[in-house]
Design brief:
42% of the residues lie in helices and 17% in strands. It is α/β, with parallel strands linked by helices and 228 residues long. The chain folds into two domains: 2-193, Alpha-Beta Complex (2-enoyl-CoA Hydratase, Chain A, domain 1); 197-227. A six-stranded mixed beta sheet has the order 1-2-3-4-6-9, with helices on both faces. Strand 1 and strand 2 (10-15) form a beta hairpin. Helix 3 packs across helix 4, helix 4 crosses helix 5 and helix 8 (197-209) packs antiparallel against helix 9 (215-227). The radius of gyration is 17 Å and the shape is globular. The chain starts with a strand and ends with a helix. It comes from Actinomadura sediminis. This is Enoyl-CoA hydratase-related protein. InterPro entries: ClpP/crotonase-like_dom_sf, Enoyl-CoA_hyd/isom_CS, Enoyl-CoA_hydra/iso. Belongs to the enoyl-CoA hydratase/isomerase family.
Length: 228
């Protein structure tokens, strides 16, 4: 249900359950966590591309599996349903998105550093329309990416956001023709992997870690990361 493939220095991780629009059940979540951890440990991997098989990214958590008790009961301190979304990977992650990107799948895409989508993509926290809370940090990351007003628009209406609107908001980085999201995502990850890693990693960490810091302290942290 999770496929791993190396494309030079880029590790491609594919959610491969197309008959369920790549909805994630418990074993698949565990396998995803293991795949990301393996990419982090591999010194030959410089960047990761995360995608879905069969024309969809991920429809979210598998509701049938949840009803059957396949997922552990969530807790504030336990692993999140998608396993990886409370981790801070050291390597850049690009999400290549076609079709459905809903619920936990939406939260997984928000966890990535960059998002490339085709015009078929749709985004949203549709889980909220079914009374299921966000547990993979959508309420944290979405406002930081698109702003509080737009985030509340998405969350409080539980509506579907088309790819063109997502591009205008900065939710996705690039918009491509149907079927080309993976190609573009791999090209982007390859460009990232081809850059000198030291300054790149320092810049990325500064961006990701500056939110809780006052501006002056964040600027000093930028210099500390860059010069160490």
């Amino acid at each position: 249900m999770i496929r791993n493939e190396d494309r030079g220095p880029v590790r491609l991780i594919t959610l491969d359950r197309p008959e369920r629009r790549n909805a994630v059940d418990g074993p698949m979540a565990e396998a995803l966590g293991e795949a990301v951890a393996a990419a982090e440990r591999d010194d030959e991997v410089a960047a990761v591309v995360l995608t879905g098989a069969g024309g969809a990214f991920c429809a979210g958590n598998d509701l049938k599996a949840m009803a059957a008790g396949d997922f552990p009961v969530p807790t504030a301190d336990g692993p999140p349903p998608m396993r990886v979304t409370r981790a801070a990977p050291a390597k850049p992650v690009v999400a290549a998105i076609e079709g459905y990107c809903f619920g936990g799948g939406f939260e997984l895409a928000l966890w990535a550093d960059l998002r490339v989508a085709s015009t078929t993509a749709e985004f949203g926290a549709l889980n909220l329309g079914q009374g299921l809370p966000c547990l993979d940090a959508a309420t944290v990351r979405l406002p930081r990416i698109v702003g509080q007003g737009r985030a509340l628009d998405v969350l409080l209406t539980a509506r579907r956001v088309p790819a063109e609107e997502a591009l205008a908001w900065g939710l996705i980085t690039r918009l491509v023709e149907p079927g080309r999201a993976l190609e573009e995502g791999l090209a982007m990850a390859g460009a990232v992997a081809g850059l000198p890693p030291g300054a790149l990693r320092a810049a990325r960490r500064s961006v990701l870690e500056q939110w809780a810091l006052p501006e002056g302290e964040a600027a000093r942290e930028e210099a500390r990361l860059a010069l160490r």
